[in-house]
Structure to design on (912 residues):
């Protein structure tokens, strides 16, 4: 180009400026606060409002909870101590009620000297669920899981050890028929036999056998009646039995509802809709008031067992709907691929369809379980002593008449811990099983 | 040719019933049918035998016998001389009342919390998360009992409102929150369609007489006239009309007592609906004009006027006024008394279900990909229009089905009324009636049927709606 401008003063800077730090309000905490908390008038308003809510809640709750009285034997003593320590009109918690009554809230009226049994049972329960929940636990622990139901039953209710052992024998008989007789008599006959023979065994042989064994080698724990159980022990027993029993039943119902067979399909639909359409509390009243009408005269069985059956049926119907959603969400190609491989119905379900469908429905299933566990509190209305029922009976004693919040806080926290950890586990499982987008 | 590929003809063999997949499903179904039939007949024969052994029969005659118990909250006229059937109806209406109130509040709470949980504002989203997780993970029963205890234990007694330094009423001396419940103003009409009573000719205390006679029904029984008044049947209207006729004779004597009847509320509801339809028509007309001329006429003020003007005319015509609660002898008089049981049940159900709805709303909004918003902006739509025409229709499709199932849950959970003594259908039909008549079987059957029909109705309506908004594919 021409050199006309060769001698003119450069108006374009030819040296780089030194790099400078960004403005103070564009970095670090200040930037974060500006962007997240005070980005507009609505945001500022919301922030201030929520800060005020947090302050108002904490400024009432924290002094109340932290200054709480732990060493008193009744409410009036508690209030006297509070007045002495913090002035006449101080509002402080009376945690002494928990210090004195926590065994009752947790075990109900279980005999004090036998507390080790529910505690041991709880530890055994944890050991039994560990291999189911976490795949890193050695697989051999599954034997503990298989035997745990019988051991737990024996630990909690007591009685002769031969009863549970004789009951296990029934399963062994069924397994033996399936393994050794199936090649000789055909699969179908073996399945029918493996169902009928153990049932006959439990009905007619099991009891006398256990009695005979018990008379030879008496080995038993002190029996504890169901009426003595209460609090979180009761809630956990009902909740865990309901969860364990309702999952398989719910899956069966969902398969029934997806089935092509007219009668099976309609029966499943009717069952699911009737159960889901009526509140659990009505079903519980049905169990306590009406079951005697439906059973042969003179039949009388444990109220807790009735409740477990009702809770199981109830949550099975909900699980069936959740699983049905999972089944419907699978692409049709999966079903066709399973058929093309020549798998029969049960094999295709077990190996191809259900693993995927259940994976999809994990959040819904866990939500149902959480709901079931929370619903165990409803048993208070038919006379079982769940934690909320026990809080009323604690309040009915003259010592603690007028204690509300401390008990509610404790019960609420316990439920929160149980349910929240179930929810977190479901998130963990979802993340672990996610196959796409890794 | 075709005969080559045909399987050889063979007669039907019995083993095909089990081993041939064409026939096996029939076998299974027949076996299942027989088993279910056996089970049902076993249950029914047991029931018949048990009923015989107890000397009971199976009939619903008890529904027409006098009930003999009082119900402390009634939407329709009821006294203890009326039948068990009527008591059940009162309970049903109470269940529906708390369900409708709960669904409305829960939706509002849930939508607000769901949107706020997605907010960029850290404090707000954390606070909402605490609300959602806290309510979702603690049993509903505990919340009901807790709010009930909060109301009865921590609120001031009515006598605390006496004097200068006591508790004070809210919102211009019109709402009182006491440990016996919440008192809110009632809307009353001096020219009620059902006719007005006239004050007894005692000139010294017209105001007090007005306040006491205003409480229709037995002493102490409060009527919730707001909101639920639309469901008042003709019965209360006619009884009020009868009172009106009696009153007309003495009209020249005393002062007219403002009152409210179902007819007034029906009229107001009709006017509101007509106004809404009118506003909608105005909108359609504006759209037509816009399509033909390209210019949209002004609609919003007209639409507001179409709803408000007739309403105001009717309210003035009926002589509407607020009947504020005021301190009487030991308690508040006048206004509407919302009992603690209703308040506790309503708030707990709404807060609890609201937490679930918040998660549903959050999921629905997250389910709409960001590309939809960007595409709408690329088309030149403004943010408001984008929300209305693009995001919401798609988000609602995800939100509505689980939302309705939450409404169903709330309705069924309202049976927890038993914890606070709210007189819903389970307490009347499924509680006191069963205890008094000893008809457990019939009572529970009716109770179950009521809930079942209600659930099926709601889910039927929901399915209709759902199929109208769902994605139309090939």
């Amino acid at each position: 180009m021409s050199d006309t401008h060769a001698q003119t003063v450069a108006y374009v800077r030819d040296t780089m400026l030194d790099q400078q730090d960004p403005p103070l309000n564009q970095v670090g905490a200040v930037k974060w606060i500006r962007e997240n908390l005070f980005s507009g008038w609505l945001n500022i308003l919301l922030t201030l409002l929520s800060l005020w809510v947090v302050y108002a809640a904490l400024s009432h709750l924290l002094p109340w909870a932290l200054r709480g009285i732990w060493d008193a034997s009744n409410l009036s003593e508690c209030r006297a101590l509070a007045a002495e320590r913090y002035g006449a009109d101080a509002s402080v918690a009376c945690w002494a009620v928990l210090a004195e009554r926590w065994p009752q809230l947790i075990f109900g009226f279980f005999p004090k000297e036998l507390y080790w049994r529910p505690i041991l049972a709880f530890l055994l329960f944890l050991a039994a669920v560990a291999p189911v929940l976490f795949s890193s636990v050695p697989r051999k622990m599954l034997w503990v899981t298989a035997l745990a139901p019988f051991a737990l039953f024996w630990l909690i209710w007591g009685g002769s050890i031969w009863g549970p052992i004789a009951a296990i024998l029934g399963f062994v008989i069924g397994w033996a028929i399936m393994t050794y007789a199936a090649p000789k008599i055909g699969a179908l006959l073996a399945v029918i036999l493996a169902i009928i023979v153990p049932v006959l065994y439990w009905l007619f042989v099991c009891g006398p056998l256990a009695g005979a064994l018990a008379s030879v080698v008496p080995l038993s724990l002190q029996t504890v009646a169901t009426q003595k159980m209460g609090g979180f022990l009761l809630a956990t027993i009902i909740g865990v039995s309901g969860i364990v029993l309702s999952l398989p039943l719910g899956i069966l119902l969902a398969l029934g509802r997806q089935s092509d067979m007219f009668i099976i399909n309609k029966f499943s639909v009717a069952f699911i809709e009737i159960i889901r359409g009526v509140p659990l509390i009505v079903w519980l009243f049905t169990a306590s008031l009406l079951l005697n009408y439906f059973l042969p005269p003179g039949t009388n069985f444990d109220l807790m067992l009735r409740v477990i059956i009702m809770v199981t049926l109830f949550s099975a119907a909900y699980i069936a709907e959740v699983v049905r959603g999972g089944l419907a969400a699978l692409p049709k190609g999966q079903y066709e691929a399973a058929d093309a491989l020549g798998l029969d119905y049960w094999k295709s379900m077990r190996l191809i369809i259900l693993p995927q469908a259940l994976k999809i429905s994990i959040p819904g299933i866990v939500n149902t379980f959480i709901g079931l566990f929370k619903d165990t509190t409803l048993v208070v209305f038919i006379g079982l002593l769940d934690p909320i029922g026990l809080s009323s009976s604690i309040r009915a004693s003259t010592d603690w008449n007028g204690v509300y919040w401390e008990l509610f806080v404790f019960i609420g926290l316990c439920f929160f811990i149980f349910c929240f950890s179930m929810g977190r586990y479901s998130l963990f499982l979802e993340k672990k099983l996610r196959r796409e987008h890794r | 040719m075709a005969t080559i590929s045909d399987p050889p003809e063979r007669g039907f063999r019995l083993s095909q019933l089990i081993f041939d997949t064409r026939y096996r499903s029939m076998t299974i179904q027949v076996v299942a049918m027989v088993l279910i039939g056996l089970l049902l007949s076993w249950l029914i024969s047991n029931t018949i035998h048990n009923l015989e052994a107890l000397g009971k029969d199976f009939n619903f005659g008890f529904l027409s016998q006098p009930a003999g118990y009082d119900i402390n909250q009634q939407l329709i006229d009821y006294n203890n001389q009326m039948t068990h059937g009527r008591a059940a109806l009162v309970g049903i209406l109470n269940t529906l009342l708390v369900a409708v109130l709960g669904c409305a509040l829960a939706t509002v709470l849930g939508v607000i919390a769901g949107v706020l949980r997605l907010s960029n504002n850290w404090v707000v989203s954390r606070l909402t998360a605490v609300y959602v997780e806290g309510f979702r993970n603690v049993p509903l029963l505990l919340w009901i009992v807790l709010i009930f205890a909060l109301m009865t234990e921590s609120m001031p007694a009515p006598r605390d409102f006496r004097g200068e330094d006591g508790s004070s009423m809210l919102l211009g001396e019109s709402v009182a929150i006491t440990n016996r419940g919440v008192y809110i103003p009632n809307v009353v009409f001096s020219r009620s369609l059902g006719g007005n009573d006239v004050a007894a000719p005692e000139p010294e205390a017209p105001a007090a007489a007005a306040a006491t006679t205003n409480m229709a029904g037995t002493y102490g029984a409060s009527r919730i006239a707001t909101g639920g008044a639309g469901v008042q049947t003709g019965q209360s209207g006619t009884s009020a009309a009868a009172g009106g006729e009696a009153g007309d004779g003495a009209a020249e004597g005393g002062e007219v007592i403002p009152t409210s009847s179902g007819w007034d509320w029906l009229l107001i509801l009709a006017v509101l609906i007509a106004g809404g339809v009118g506003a909608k028509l105005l909108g359609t007309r504006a759209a037509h004009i816009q399509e033909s001329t390209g210019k949209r006429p002004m609609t919003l003020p007209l639409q507001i006027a179409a709803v408000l003007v007739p309403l105001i005319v009717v309210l003035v015509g009926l002589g509407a006024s607020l009947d504020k609660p005021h301190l009487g002898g030991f308690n508040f008089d006048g206004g509407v008394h919302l009992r603690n049981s209703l308040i506790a049940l309503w708030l707990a159900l709404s807060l609890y279900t609201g937490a679930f709805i918040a998660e549903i709303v959050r999921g629905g909004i997250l389910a709409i990909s960001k590309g939809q918003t960007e595409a709408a902006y690329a088309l030149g739509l403004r943010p408001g229009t984008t929300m209305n025409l693009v995001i919401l229709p798609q988000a609602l499709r995800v939100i509505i089905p689980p939302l309705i199932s939450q409404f169903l849950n709330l309705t069924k959970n309202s049976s927890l009324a038993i914890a606070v003594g709210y007189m819903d259908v389970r307490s009347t039909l499924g509680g006191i009636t069963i205890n008094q008549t000893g008809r457990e079987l019939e009572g529970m059957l009716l109770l179950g049927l009521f809930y079942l029909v209600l659930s099926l109705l709601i889910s039927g309506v929901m399915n209709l709606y759902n199929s109208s908004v769902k994605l139309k594919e090939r």
